[in-house]
Specification:
- This is Aspartic proteinase-like protein 2.
- This protein is mainly beta.
- It folds into 2 domains: 314 residues, Acid Proteases (Cathepsin D, subunit A, domain 1, Beta Barrel); 161 residues, Acid Proteases (Cathepsin D, subunit A, domain 1, Beta Barrel), CATH 2.40.70.
- 11% of the residues lie in helices and 40% in strands.
- The protein contains 6 helices and 33 strands.
- The strands form 7 sheets. The protein has a 16-stranded mixed β-sheet that branches. A 4-stranded antiparallel β-sheet has the order 16-15-21-22, covered by helices on one side. A 4-stranded antiparallel β-sheet has the order 19-20-24-23, with no helix packed on it.
- The chain is elongated.
């Protein structure tokens, strides 16, 4: 989802996450966190669309002007492309350290966890996890951020914090995030220690830590009060100065870049890293400046190499329109003025005796006994700077069933009714390396088999070979191989594993 912290539903899988330091921090030392994915029941295309649209109401509100071994994690059950879940990780906070399950959200900025007492906060979770609450007074290293603190002043300027004129300089720096669907959370900021499990050479483990600022939630409302997919908080991966990625980068602990590669096949999988994938042929386009989300300038759409007759102004960025990259949106959404032109072009290109076209519950669908790659066209999205994203039929079609020996496919791109926002969700982002280079304000991508290894930059002067079971090192190259991401600071590595149906 591309908004402030709130429940996010994803097509995805369980994840394991590692942070590793580069040579400046010593050889063979890795910092690890563990991510998991809760998977509820199978969802229909209509259910996916309904959940996505709930998130998109928050998008519109947020865009309105306002101011050396590898841990191998177990795989339970299976995942498929129709499953809707959420990504979450375990983080340890405070002294003594306490573990919390927090949802990973690339569309928000702040890490916050439930505190005690809390009004409206769930006491149990349908994800089969034990919910916890953070108690600042029980941590010997915790301190409340006052209104006079520069971190609070900066957060107030960006709308991430509030301090009223009646508050004294020592009053807690507060926040209140409200969403268009009625959900919300409020609390105050604290500073405390974030602990990581570390893996060093020969599969030995140790601990490391960093002091960060995060939110202490004492009130939740709307969907955040529901227990079916409740977690202890939200881990925002946005660009704000108080996001964990920004804090670690400013401290010289981590680079200001993260990447993911989500496997699109039935068993899921993939990787997410705090670091830069350096595979050849990654193309980049600039991020639109001064936007709260990951906005790109989409210039045109082509179907079967024919550019569609869509005015480029339809995709121009403003407070009410533009193109957003959001790994928290399951499907993909086209601005209303572009949608019908796109669908008609697909229908025209796929017209043959091998394909039967029909409409089901407002969705354009097809029945075909042939491979979709043989009868459906390629789609190209052209962005500023000449960067082109080429999409296969599986990037805009969703398999919805079968009849006799034929497969039923429906267009997974949805019309953003009454809205000018185009959202590139998981349906498009899967089976691609996607790099969020925040330091250089750009996003890059390339089509990729996300079950294979990837190259990443490192300053250690040696190769690192990583898979889900092991890590080997050998001298010579300045690149790492197989799901390893290195920079001058720490490296964050996430393994995405297939998850079980927990509901």
């Amino acid at each position: 989802m591309v908004a402030s912290p709130v429940n996010k539903l994803l097509v995805g899988t369980a994840i394991a996450l590692l942070i590793l330091p580069a040579a400046a921090w010593g050889d063979g030392f890795q910092l690890t966190m563990e991510l998991e994915r809760g998977v509820p029941a199978r969802a229909s295309l209509e259910a996916l669309r309904t959940r996505d649209r709930a998130r998109h109401r928050r998008i519109l509100q947020a865009t309105a002007p306002s101011s050396a071994g590898v841990v191998d994690f177990p795989v339970e059950g299976s995942a498929d492309p129709f499953t809707v879940g959420l990504y979450f990780t375990r983080v340890k906070l405070g002294n003594p350290a306490k573990e919390f399950y927090v949802q990973i959200d690339t569309g928000s900025d702040i890490l916050w966890v439930t505190c005690n007492p809390c009004n409206g906060c769930p006491s149990n979770s349908g994800l089969n996890i034990k919910l916890e609450s953070f108690e600042p007074e029980q941590s010997t290293t915790s301190s409340t951020i006052p209104c006079s603190d520069q971190r609070c002043v900066t957060a107030i300027q960006s709308g991430e914090a509030t301090c009223s004129s009646s508050d004294s300089s020592s009053s807690p720096c507060s926040y209140a995030f409200q969403y268009g669907d009625g959900s919300g959370t409020s609390g105050y900021y604290v500073s405390d220690t974030l602990y990581f499990d570390t893996v060093i050479a020969n599969e030995q483990t140790s601990n490391s830590s960093a002091t960060i600022t995060f939110g202490c939630s004492n009130s939740q409302s709307g969907d955040l009060t529901k227990s079916d997919r409740a977690v202890d908080g939200i881990f925002g991966f946005g660009q704000h100065g108080l996001s964990v990625i920004s804090q670690l980068s400013s401290a010289g602990v981590a680079p200001k870049v993260f990447s993911h590669c989500l496997k699109g096949s039935d068993n899921g999988g993939g990787i997410l890293v705090l670091g830069e994938i350096v595979e050849p042929d990654i193309v980049y386009t600039p991020l639109v400046q001064s936007q709260p989300h990951y906005n790109l300038n989409l210039e045109s759409i082509s179907v079967d190499q024919q550019q569609l007759s869509i005015d480029s102004s339809v995709f121009a960025t403003s407070n009410t329109q533009g193109t957003i990259v959001d790994s928290g949106t399951t499907l993909a959404y086209l601005a209303e003025q572009a949608y019908d032109t796109f669908v008609n072009a697909i229908i025209t290109s796929a017209s043959s005796t091998q394909v039967k076209s029909f409409v089901a519950k407002g969705n354009q669908c097809f029945i075909s006994a042939s491979s979709v790659d043989d009868v459906f066209p390629l789609v190209s999205l052209k962005f500023t700077g000449g960067a082109v994203m080429t999409l296969k039929p599986e990037d805009y079609l969703i398999q919805q069933g079968s009849v006799d020996n034929a497969i039923i496919w429906c267009i997974g791109w949805q019309k953003n009714d009454g809205q000018g926002i185009t959202i590139l969700g998981d349906l498009i982002l899967k089976d691609k390396i996607v790099v969020y280079d925040l330091a250089n304000q750009r996003i890059g991508w390339k089509s990729y088999n996300c079950s294979q290894s990837v190259n990443v930059s490192t300053t250690s002067g040696k190769n690192e070979y990583v898979n889900s079971n092991q890590l080997d090192t050998s001298a010579s190259s300045k690149y790492s191989k197989l799901r390893l991401f290195s920079t001058e600071g720490f490296i964050l590595l996430v393994y995405i594993l297939a998850a079980a149906a927990l509901l």
